[in-house]
Amino acid sequence: MTTRTPSDTPSAPRRDFLAGAAGSAAILALAEPLGMALAADAPSVIVQPPLPYADNALDPVISAHTLGFHYGKHHKAYVDNLNKAIAGTPLADLALEKIITTTAGQADKAGVFNNAAQTWNHTFYWNSLRPNGGGIPPAALKAQIEKDFGSVENLKKELLTAATGQFGSGWAWLVTEGGKLAVTKTGNADLPMTKGQKALLTIDVWEHAYYLDYQNRRADYVTAVLDKLVNWQFAADNLARG
Ligand code: MN
Fold first, then answer.
1. Architecture of domain 139-240
2. How confident is the model at residue 234 (pLDDT cuts 50, 70, 90)?
3. Domain 3-127, second-level architecture
4. Inter-residue contact 185 to 173 (CB < 8 Å)
5. Tens-place pLDDT, residues 41-66
6. 16: CA distance to ligand 1 center in Å?
7. Ligand 1 center–CA 159 separation, angstroms
8. Distance, CA 74 to ligand 1 centroid (Å)?
9. 3-class DSSP state for residue 185?
10. 173 neighbors 201 (Cβ within 8 angstroms)
């Protein structure tokens, strides 16, 4: 499988990181007495996974211009800010998903939660899209969609309604809850994993996701994504993992 999921991100890159730049005892020994001054310049512990396609691969539905800013500036900033926030704290020892569930709902940890959740959400979003996406979902997912929504078209309508109905920044999701598929929306950084739901697919409806290409026309962006980019195979794989 070439599909990358956010749950891959905390463990594998962390080992790479430890084996690489900061792997030597000499560097660690040097870093220790210098404390934060050096740590601020040290490589991140939570690593931003590479995009699963070239930055122009979703053109013209999502332009390379948008993707360059979205991945290279917005997503990267969440990862960088998360690493700054957890450096030197017990949270730095946790996997990304554990950081999210540990800090969710805690007012004094809102900054960490927001950056951790946005780090996870964006990696999940990149994988929810693919070049030449859309079309007909794989058979098992299609059958489940028809059972719970009547048809794929009905599901797409519900996703569009959720995406356009989200007031301000947030996300539209296809999730499973209690063995059934459901469509939900969340505000800002919020995400299904803290609500007893499992995410299958997401669409970013923050303005930075579409404004350069669609300006205020969020519905046009979401419709184009659902018709041309949505990665049903990723959703099917997430469903199969249960
Ligand atoms: Mn975004």
1. 3-Layer(bab) Sandwich (3.55)
2. very high
3. Orthogonal Bundle (1.10)
4. yes
5. 444 489 999 999 999 999 999 999 99
6. 26
7. 17
8. 6
9. strand
10. yes
